[in-house]
Amino acid sequence: MQFLLILIVVAGGMGLSVEAGLLGPLGTQVGDLWATFSVFGVGAALTFLLMLFFSPRESPSIFAQPSWQLLGGILGPIYVVILTVAVPNIGIALTMIGVLAGQVFKSLIIDHYGLLGTPHRKIDKKRIISLLFIIAALVMVSQG
Q1: Rounded Cα distance, 109 and 107, in Å
Q2: What pTM value is reported for the model?
Q3: Do residues 118 and 110 lie in contact, with contact meaning Cβ atoms separated by under 8 Å?
């Protein structure tokens, strides 16, 4: 099961690279914020259709949840604007390696302290070395 989830996550990461590749030219043509809006508009419509047909009807109200859990609604558009602006200037590879470096760095901290309701997973030598390899990739790709 873990292997299957890893494959799905890797495929999701590939999808993010495609999304970044689409956003850069779209942002150049229609504007960065319009490109971001289009991504979230299409995504909201698709999510609505999926909810309509596949979501349980008796699920708890989103408004009954702690408000901090809705922070992703703010972080998502910020992330998409960053992709839209960065890709035409530094390319997809450097953008995505930079995103990956930030994700892994912050993820290690979140895991280590068990923040945001996640299980506690200590930072160990292997995790630090993995982060250092990603940082090395960021430096090497930025030099090329």
Answers
A1: 5
A2: 0.85
A3: yes
